[in-house]
Amino acid sequence: MQVNLRSFKQKVRHNAKQLRTFLTKLEKRAPKGLDNLAEIVSPQVWAEIDCLSCANCCKTMSPTFTPADIKRISAHLEMKPNEFKEKWLEYDKKDKDWLNKLRPCQFLNLKTNMCSIYEVRPADCAGFPHLNKKKMTEYVHVHKQNVEYCPATYKMVEKMKDLIG
To answer: What's the pTM value of the predicted model, to 2 decimals?
Structure first.
């Protein structure tokens, strides 16, 4: 289903705080079967969300580039890793991470919402939005952040809140 970013941002403004509060409760006291519930809800979410109609993650966030990502992507672009970092990345001294200099991502085609390096994209992108990781409680902090950027995360948390209460 197409994502309407304007409508999504309105929903976030009205509901993000309560969804983050729900996630905090999950973090502190996860109900039994939480991981199984995430596995059940995830396909339902993907039946309702089309990432290519959105790409808000690529427009507003940056993945973390690991050394392996940098090596793989720079080779794909026929650049040396240092050239790639100098041209496209910045180093976050606080978190000690390599991030995109630009937003939206330099590899995002804004007309199609497709990634020009999809086959070698960063591991962070390949796993995003991390909906059904094996131990959901270890990713709650990620979902708290992503709930306001990613309609799929928002939808998952909304569905889980409805099911768990």
So the answer is: 0.89
